[in-house]
Design brief:
One of its GO terms (molecular function) is oxidoreductase activity. By secondary structure, the protein is α/β, with parallel strands linked by helices. 28% of the residues lie in helices and 27% in strands. The chain folds into two domains: 196 residues, Medium-chain alcohol dehydrogenases, catalytic domain (Quinone Oxidoreductase, Chain A, domain 1); 140 residues, Rossmann fold. The chain contains eleven helices and 16 strands.
Length: 352
Amino acid sequence: MTSVQQQIPSTQKALQWVRVSGTNPFEWTTSAPVIEPSELDANQVLIENHAVSLNPIDYKIAESNFLNVNLPSVTGYDVSGRIVAIGNDVQDYKVGDEVFGTLSFKPEKGGGAFQQYSVGNTDTLVKKPSNLSHEDAATLGVAYLSALEGLRQVNIDSTTSVFIPGGSGGVGHFSIQIARIRGAKQIITSASKDDGIQILKEQYKINDVINHSKENVVDRVLELTQGQGVNIVYDSTYLPSSFEKSTQVVRENGSWIVLGDFGKEGSPEAINVAQRKANLVHAELGRYWFGPEQKQLKSFFYDGLTQAAKWIQEGKLKPYINKIIKLEETENALNQLKQGKGGFGKIVIKLV
């Protein structure tokens, strides 16, 4: 029997995804349905969202609907909040527990973060420590886990040099921190805006920051590595123009990591990496829902999210939130993100 201990409204505020479009896929509503607790699947929970964060996938999926979602729906995947109802088989969580994590990439009724109440699966959520804010917890979804997923596939130790283009981005700023936590000898990154460069140097103590709008990235990386190049590149920029440069600085037998569908066989970046005699590594969270890694989904998310909370508590990991907005401002913030104007790190929506 589904457990519920509070009155849950039947409608809610939400930024609904109503059409597949690159220009106007969303519509704001104050009357989106809230799923009935009795409709929860056995291992699902209903979360009252306290904070959620934005990622490029939130607008990318609305442009192409590559997961074949039935519309209207809601996008957004990073959540932190309080459980208000649980499915019949949920044992590790109870109503009132505060949780954070990632909503399912699979289309699910009631899913999507850009609303007041979201359906989540217990496999990709963990309990939130009381001394971790909902705002910080909400950043530890897609961007942090993508950084972790890429870097966990390579060896990093006190001899390793790493180049992370776009260190001011969501994935980038987590990647530089994970590389440091794991003991990398040298971390090089890049940014184009003076304030981002300042944050990387002053707050994250990265000495080697390249201004890619003014400097030759390839020349500078080679200069900083005495002409050797780096052992690992993690290029999370989504930009072929960046790939063309970053593939030139990975050493023979090194690793070039890329997000998502990039780096497919026959692509320019795959050819470049092969010519460098380096390894091409894919960081793709979707594989845990749709690929052979499905059996590892629960362990990857539990271990990764629990580790993130511990690192934050130890002062080793510091999510950078450049802006906290209201739910009503989500569509404008997504447009800014799409235009490359999302600012350093993460944008968070505060709901409670």
